[in-house]
Amino acid sequence: MNIVMIGAGAMGSLLHQQLDAYHQVHFLPKPGQQEFGFTETYQFTHLNGNTEQLVRRYIKVEQIGQADMVICALKAYQVKGAVEYIAPFLSPDCPLVLQHNGMGVFQQVRQALGDNYKLGLLLSTQGARRVEDEQVLHTGKGNWQLGSYQAFDVRDNPAAALLNHLQDCSWYPSIREIQWTKLAVNCVINPLTAIYDVLNGELNNDRFTDIIDALINEVVVQAKVEKINLEPERLRNTIYQVIRQTAGNSSSMREDILAHRQSEIEFINGYIVNCAQHSGRAAPQNQWCVTQINQLQKK
Ligand SMILES: NC(=O)C1=CN([C@@H]2O[C@H](COP(=O)(O)OP(=O)(O)OC[C@H]3O[C@@H](n4cnc5c(N)ncnc54)[C@H](OP(=O)(O)O)[C@@H]3O)[C@@H](O)[C@H]2O)C=CC1
Ligand SMILES: CC(C)(CO)C(=O)C(=O)O
Q1: Which end of the chain has a smaller Cβ tally under 10 Å, C or N?
Q2: How far from 72 is each of 202, 296, 297, CA to CA, in Å?
Q3: Using CA atoms, how far apart are residues 263 and 150, in angstroms rounded to an integer?
Q4: Which helix (H) or strand (E) holds 232?
Q5: How far apart are CA 184 and CA 187, in angstroms?
Q6: Residue pLDDT, tens place only, 137-151
Q7: Domain spanning 2-173: which superfamily?
Q8: In this structure, which residue's CA is closest to atom 19 in ligand 1?
Q9: Interface ipTM
């Protein structure tokens, strides 16, 4: 299968490493980067410390029309621009699989492409880190969760390729529930670790109990508006389980703030605030997180 990857970062490289043995995987350069026809060697380090050299092969955007599947592994705020860039060349027959954290991306992509395209969603509990463009580390064992945003059919070849060739990849007919649970995890852990400048495990401390409960309750209310039933106690247990399991992690949002990079706040707590504005059910703790992170981002 001819797969085009948008995003040569941590997750794009992890996907490349897992799919490369079975498929022709090419990367799309960022707009303005004339890298088509070029190749780039990088070192991929596996969880057990073994390393291998992989080669990224770049194509030009016009060649997107020859793809059997496009996978977009970008930060949530990068997806809209990337999709607008490929839209003139993307056939409605070619599924576009979005791999990202947060919510609100689908609405942006649907606005860019219309409802005629096949859109998949690939969530992940894997960990990967790009040290430099030439070095990517697989940092956390996890799995892939595949589902449909719009008309992405589990019986078609692109879905089968991901299910058969990604490590630990399963199909979820109700991927939106999983996405909401992941959103809730990120709504709690990401902003609090960034605002208080702590590792994930520190959130187990009693001083965070009240704000964690308030954030969870606000997410549950907004999920219900979107007809997703999240059971608060179960969700709370899941979130504390992630806090314990990733106790030594520095969350991606904390890392973004420390590195003075844009964070995905608008697609995490910002999404809840946006839902709250539409539903009329306030989400003050999520709003507080957005305000605090936006202030930190300005520094
Ligand atoms: N890393 C992880 O462990 C996990 C990440 N996720 C989620 O997966 C998504 C991707 O994360 P991750 O891979 O870590 O992010 P990265 O920043 O490592 O990767 C994104 C890459 O895409 C490049 N890029 C940006 N815009 C474009 C474009 N228009 N065309 C082509 N390339 C582009 C970026 O370049 P540049 O940096 O120069 O902008 C960067 O190399 C995020 O939503 C993240 O939250 C989910 C689970 C785990
Ligand atoms: C689960 C968690 C919070 C792990 O650090 C994460 O997804 C992130 O950092 O973005």
Answers
A1: C
A2: 33, 28, 25
A3: 27
A4: helix 232-245
A5: 5
A6: 999 899 999 999 999
A7: NAD(P)-binding Rossmann-like Domain (3.40.50.720)
A8: 9
A9: 0.98
Q: Strands across the sheet with 135-140, in order? A: 51-57, 39-45, 135-140, 127-132
Q: In this structure, what token pair is assigned to residue 140? A: 């956390």
With cut-offs at 50, 70 and 90, classify the pLDDT of residue 36: low
Residue type, 79: V
> Domain extents for the chain?
2-173, 177-298
- Nearest C-alpha to atom 4 of ligand 2 is from which residue? 251
CB 18 within 8 A of CB 169: no
Please report how many Cα atoms fall inside a 13 Å half-sphere around the Cα of residue 69, on the Cβ side. 22
Contact 265, 294 (CB under 8 A): yes
Structure tokens of 73? 């592994």
Ligand nearest to the CA of 263: 1
Catalytic residue among 60, 118, 182, 299: 182
CATH class of the 177-298 domain in this structure: mainly alpha
